[in-house]
Amino acid sequence: MITTNRFKKVNAKVAALVVAGMTWVMGVPTFAATDLELPVEHATLTVAPIVPPPIVRDHPAKVIVTLETIEKVGRLSDGVEYTFWTFGGQVPGNFIRIREGDHVEFNLNNHPSSKMPHNIDLHAVTGPGGGATSSFTAPGHSSRFSFKALNPGLYVYHCATAPVGMHIANGMYGLILVEPEEGLPPVDKEYYIMQSEFYTKGSYGEEGLQPFDMAKALSEIPDYVVFNGAVGAIAGDNAMRADVGESVRIFVGNGGPNLVSSFHVIGEIFDKVYVEGGDMVNHHVQSTLIPAGGSAVVEFLVDVPGTFILVDHSIFRAFNKGALGMLKIDGDEDLAVYSGKQEDSVYLPEGGGIQSIAERGSVSVKAKSKEERILFGERTYAQNCMACHQSSGQGIPGAFPPLAGSDYLLSSPNRSIDVLLHGLSGEIVVGGQSYNGVMPAVQLSDESIANVLTYVLNSWGNNGGVILPEQVIERRTH
Ligand SMILES: [Cu+2]
Fold this sequence. Notes:
repeat, copper ion binding, elongated, copper
């Protein structure tokens, strides 16, 4: 009984404090006094795929966010226009970045040219309607409400004015990132992508200004599924970019209104996925599910150059409805990671069966002549060396030394046997060029090592010679 009373007393005290700390503006309560002591800053808002810079402060702030709803005609695809309802003038809406514990003063301005009232439901808000009930704003009006960012994470925001589905289908969604107090680990590049669908009177690609189609939206059969509000919004010249060796973080949202995204980057593996935009991290993920009204943060290191295609792996959406983006990676090839096409040869299933027996046999079958040794060695080379040293032994300048005309190789047979047996690292000079890479030790039999080196010695203008398995055995036990 006593404890209950005490508990009540404490509660009453807290309540009294809060009431005393409030200031009243025209009968509307604003923040408690403690919030007035916070430093004030205005949020930097960005247009997709740009993300505002990371937050460096180590304390909460009062952050003022001002977002404008505006209805405007824009490009949905080449020759196809649509009347988008937007947060900030484009789809998706501006990216908002705040920190856990921040007090946010949110101002929603509805442009006077709007035909509709709008509001905002931020999934980062703890409170009725996520802010929707306090932000209902008629055209030419402005609303303000405040909230405290209690939970870190990547959250969707969207309009929640009736008919809600239609406001979302017309483009009213975006992302708000609430960074955890300790911040996110630094990366080299950050991007913002949001998937969503459009339901139009005309089918995919039909030209002209396309009105919204309620029947298609109800049956959840969209004509367009896109990243960042339009077909090709992040493709071609608008592709996202990074350099080889950089770490990339993509904040991915799904505005829906109906579909779940199977987000995938062709030719990449997500090293990390912050599942559903929370703080649970999954590793080595190929495709991640992003629910309508949900998000994910994906991270990966880019190891090789090229154009990587981002898709919703519900694949007809990607190639037939627009859900396709691009990430262009510039930099040097890493042929150990990805070789490119190494061979295009005739495929004979029947003859091939016999060939592979002969080939398998050749490992144990001893070469009976120098010619046979070279022939067997050529196969071993194609399978074990070509990825790095290239088809004509020319190597790759700065990365893989040449075996054609290599003074290093030709000057000492024993040394080249050792390279294959034990691998090689540290600086070496080949043909006056210095190399400082790592050559892994190869797992080959004595016979195969003799064969491949004999092949190398007798190819690409090298000066001939034979390496015998006995020499390899001698070096192995050396
Ligand atoms: Cu709206």
